[in-house]
UniProtKB/TrEMBL annotation, chain A:
It is found in: Cell inner membrane. One of its GO terms (biological process) is C4-dicarboxylate transport. Residues 30-159 form the Tripartite ATP-independent periplasmic transporters DctQ component domain. This is TRAP transporter small permease protein. Keywords: Cell inner membrane, Cell membrane, Membrane, Transmembrane, Transmembrane helix, Transport. The chain crosses the membrane at residues 20-40, 52-70, 90-112. It is a multi-pass membrane protein.
UniProtKB/TrEMBL annotation, chain C:
The keyword Transport applies. It is found in: Cell inner membrane. This is TRAP transporter large permease protein. The keyword GTP-binding does not apply.
Length: 181, 331, 444
């Protein structure tokens, strides 16, 4: 068990690095598409066809792919104003509750959005007003992938509490604050 | 029982909103209050592009939808979006009614999608607005940067129009025209007043061709759960609603036209196409339309037949109106 | 159960979960989903769970795509990236160095500089979120490094970020103008003076607080005039970036929605040209952008779900007619509307509140014969308070996203509380002297 609690999170992090690298590439593409389109229409009378659509689809990827990585950093938004004053044990229990709820609801969202992506593929849905007849399913398929990967990370944190990111306590923060003086 | 009606329209005082409010009250009155309609304005319940799915799933019970957003699911309904033939609100909706009357496949399609059509109306005529010169024929583009409708993009490619097709969001249209990001755009006459496009456009050309039909759908399960009397009320109201909406649409077009011509600060140079100019645009659009119909026919073979039926009805009804006027003007 | 009761219980449940450290994305989706199931299940006679589940499931399946595949949203990562790139290249450090030399002796000088920076950025961006995101990235680390109070450093940017919607261009103003049939141009013009007034009041407050308590914003040592002018040289990168983006925008080279991507491209090209960017720094900027975007939109998705559910409960509509229903002096109606908007703003997003309340509020305002442009500006000011008020203050979340672990959310909310008080002062002034809002559009 002790070995698993280290090797499993480590394996997941290795995959995460590749997911993040891919997301970085897509984010950079988002910039490039708009830039080329503006330069193209201004100087060469030719914009990138479906530029807005491509950006929208990349947006979907940029939002959903990094969610699991964010979870590993403890990066999702939470309000700790009150819970910081509670004992360590209670805080840890609340984090567990949050993970359970997260797995339940985002697990459900994973399944339902996968169904939507499948439907989109089956119907051969073309993105609205696409000049290049871009299919919608690839962008839609990234959603359940990103969400599922997030759920896997939450499950691992649920099963192996040692893999949860450390929450900086008030005490640590107080220590940090005195560093400057 | 309260039914939620979701519309993208802002709750302003305008003829088509008056018809909607009238319809809601009439449903309530004729069902002796067993149905109450609550209108949710300006996409506050569902976004317009998600309307079909929102109604299908039951978030909204009733609402207008655009067949363009869900073409894969409703290839037949997609035939109601025209680039050819009259864009007059009454002509288009009456022609569509005749074309789909007793046309079995379109009812099957709606049922497959979990929707029950309870009325429809037309966006009315399209306009070409611009800041450089009026776009009376495709030759007038002269290298301009123009925001085109989807099928105009194909027409531009097929006919080698001298323009740069620019995609910007509808929200950016105002500042885009104001600052010269684009020189012109295709739009609808009825949108110009509420979105203040007269403040930034110098020339407006009423093309007279092409429109978007907007079906009003009810969730099929909700429909199934209505009593026989309630169903009857809604069905009886359908033709009245359609005609009132067509009339309201024409009134709105008239209001918009007056505003554009007589606005104290922002008047535009207003043009209406001649028959020859209109035919020229239609010729240019024809290959793009053929391609569109062929695409839809791959999804449902009945699309080709429906397209033909609609086109010939468009001509027939336009002829009728030319000779006898609108039904509410006939004695 | 009637929808209003479900709505009230859902609100209580949502706030409880938020305070118990359940991640915000989870709270919003859980509340929205459960609420939707309950409302849809109890619509007919009796309780039809299958019906409730079917509707909510269909909605939940569509939600992730429909709430993110929206072109206007792409401005958020694009402006974030611009900010991160400028930071990685050290341009922001340079400009703060300069600001510190020039404004360092002024009480709270860097905070004042950040506030002014937000106003400049607001003139580029149509959104408060984008303003807070980009400026937060540039300004906050610099202030923290100079020993500024964490609450002040983050609070000033979170609050000044709200100028993004008050200083045109503004997406909220466009929405309001369309909704109420007013001229977009007039609405834009009307926002200029209230926007500058808000800025002035923020700056005055920061300076007074810093004067009274220098520990909040440690002053920097005296600098010679020669050094002051010398420091101007290093600001060329940022100045060029601002000049290119603003002039490109106003000359129509690109649209407000495209400005973020162009800004990011220009920031990249300038940094590359100045040899201040390598592979690692670029990769860092991209990574930070991804983290912030993903974090923010995980919550936005949930907010959409809650909004649709709230619209179905009619709870916002009930509250609005309640607030407007008193048969009393109009000033009391305006005051009760203030309370309503500030309350809704604690936990809902600006656009959502606007969409839900306008259909009921506008007839009331018309009945009182108030100027609709004036009311629009007041309302946007209310909505901007909502962006920074706890427990759901999106601008504060953005700041938290941008500064990561170095500042707690509680500190940010403590920091903005001063600015919320100033916002209330600004609103009082705009209510007392409506001409401040109306005179510019009247000139048109
Ligand atoms: Na702005
Ligand atoms: Na808030």
């Amino acid at each position: 068990m002790a070995r698993l609690s280290e090797s499993i999170p480590r394996a997941i992090s290795a995959v995460d690095r590749q997911v993040v690298r891919f997301s970085q590439l897509l984010l950079a593409m988002m910039v490039v598409v708009t830039f080329l389109s503006v330069v193209g229409r201004t100087f060469f009378s030719q914009a990138v066809p479906d530029d807005l659509l491509i950006s929208e689809m990349l947006m979907v990827a940029v939002v959903f792919l990094p969610m699991g990585y964010l979870q590993s950093l403890g990066g999702h938004l939470e309000v700790t104003v009150i819970t910081d004053h509670l004992p360590e044990k209670v805080q840890s229990a609340l984090v567990t509750v949050g993970l359970v709820l997260g797995v339940v609801f985002f697990g459900l969202m994973t399944w339902l959005s996968a169904r939507m992506a499948w439907e989109s593929w089956e119907f051969g849905v073309i993105a609205y007003a696409s000049a290049l007849d871009l299919p919608e399913w690839p962008a839609k398929a990234l959603i359940p992938l990103g969400l599922a990967w997030w759920c896997v990370r939450m499950l691992v944190q649920l099963v192996f509490p040692s893999s949860r990111p450390g929450h900086t306590s008030e005490f640590d923060q107080a220590l940090d604050e005195t560093n400057g003086y | 029982r309260t039914l939620n009606y979701a519309t993208p329209a802002p709750p302003t005082e305008r003829p088509s909103n008056d018809v909607l409010r009238w319809w809601a009250e009439e449903v309530e009155r004729r069902t002796d209050g067993s149905i109450e309609i609550k209108i949710h304005w300006l996409q506050s319940l569902i976004k317009f592009k998600d309307a079909a799915r929102g109604i299908q799933s039951g978030i909204a019970d009733i609402g207008p939808m655009s067949p363009e957003y869900t073409m894969a699911q409703n290839p037949l309904l997609a035939m109601s979006q025209t680039e050819l033939g009259s864009g007059d609100n009454y002509v288009a909706s009456e022609a569509w009614r005749r074309a789909t009357d007793d046309f079995e496949p379109i009812e099957q399609e709606a049922a497959r999608n979990g929707l029950k059509p309870i009325g429809f109306y037309s966006s009315g005529v399209r306009v070409n607005m611009s800041t450089t010169r009026p776009y009376l024929t495709p030759d007038d583009f002269k290298g301009d940067k123009v925001r085109l409708t989807p099928r105009a993009v194909s027409a531009a490619a097929a006919n080698d129009w001298d323009l740069t097709s620019v995609n910007i969001t509808f929200t950016d249209l105002y500042s885009g025209m104001e600052r010269g990001t684009i020189d012109g755009a295709q739009s609808y006459l009825y949108l110009m007043a509420p979105y203040k496009h007269n403040e930034v456009a110098k020339y407006v050309v009423e093309t007279g061709i092409g429109q978007s039909l907007v079906p009003v759908m009810m969730n099929a399960r909700v429909w199934g759960s209505l009593s026989a009397k309630e169903k009857q009320v809604i069905q009886e109201l359908e033709p009245v609603f359609n005609e009132k909406m067509a009339k309201a649409g024409l009134e709105e077009a008239e209001i918009a036209k007056n505003l554009l011509k007589t606005h104290p600060k922002y008047t535009v140079d207003y043009h209406v196409l001649t028959d020859e100019q209109r035919q020229l645009w239609e010729q240019h659009f024809a290959p793009a339309i053929d391609e569109y119909v062929a695409d839809m026919a791959k999804r449902d073979p009945a699309a080709s037949e429906l397209h033909q039926r609609f086109l010939s009805q468009l001509q027939a009804v336009e002829q009728e109106v030319r000779e006898q006027g609108y039904p509410w003007d006939r004695n | 159960m009637d929808p209003t009761t479900i709505g009230i219980w859902a609100t209580i449940g949502m706030i409880t979960m938020l305070l118990l450290r359940i991640p915000i994305a989870v709270v919003l989706v859980a509340t929205g989903y459960t609420g939707l199931v309950l409302v849809m299940a109890s619509r007919g006679d009796g309780f039809d769970l299958a019906q409730g589940l079917m509707t909510a499931n269909s909605f939940l399946g569509d939600l992730p795509y429909s709430s993110t595949a929206e072109y206007t949203f792409t401005t958020i990562p694009m402006f974030l990236l611009m900010g991160y790139l400028a930071t990685e290249a050290g341009f922001t450090r340079d400009i703060y160095q300069t600001a510190r030399m020039w404004l360092g002796r002024m009480p709270g000088g860097l905070a004042v500089a950040s506030s002014v920076g937000c106003a400049l950025f607001a003139a580029i961006s149509g959104s408060s979120l984008a303003t807070a995101a980009a400026m937060g990235r540039m300004a906050v680390p610099e202030m923290l490094a100079r020993g500024y109070d964490k609450g002040l450093a983050t609070g000033v940017v979170a609050a000044s970020g709200t100028l993004g919607s008050l200083i045109p261009p503004s997406i909220l103003m466009i929405l309001y103008a369309v909704f109420t049939d007013q001229s977009i141009a007039a609405m834009f013009v009307a926002g200029v003076i209230p926007g500058l007034l808000s800025l002035l009041i923020y700056v005055a407050m920061v300076m007074i607080r810093a004067r009274l308590n220098p520990a909040l914003a440690p002053p920097t040592p005296k600098v010679s005039w020669q050094d002051k002018f010398g420091s101007l040289k290093s600001t060329w990168g940022m100045l060029l970036l601002i000049v290119v983006v603003v002039s490109g925008l106003y000359s129509g080279l690109f649209t407000p929605s495209e400005a973020g991507a162009i800004g990011a491209s220009i920031a990249f090209l300038i940094s590359l040209f100045a040899r201040r960017l390598d592979r690692k720094k670029t990769s860092n900027a991209l990574l930070e952008t991804l983290k912030s975007t993903s974090m923010l939109f995980a919550a936005v998705i949930g907010a959409y779900m809650v909004t649709s559910f709230t619209a179905l409960t009619g709870i916002a509509a009930d509250l609005t007619s309640w607030a407007g229903g008193f048969d009393v002096h109009p000033a009391v109606v305006i005051a009760s509307l203030s309370v309503l908007y500030i309350f809704l703003g604690t936990f809902m997003g600006s656009i959502e509140i606007m969409l839900l309340t306008l259909p009921i509020v506008i007839p009331i305002v018309k009945g009182l014969e108030y100027d609709l442009i004036w009311f629009g500006i007041i309302m946007i000011k209310y909505l901007e308070i909502g962006l920074i008020s706890p427990p759901v203050g999106i601008n504060c979340f953005i700041l938290k996203a941008v500064v990561n672990d170095s500042v707690r959310l509680g500190d940010i909310f403590r920091g903005v509380s001063w600015f919320i008080v100033m916002d209330i002062v600004t609103i009082a002034i705009l209510v007392a002297f409506p001409e401040i809002v109306t005179f510019l559009p009247d000139l048109m």
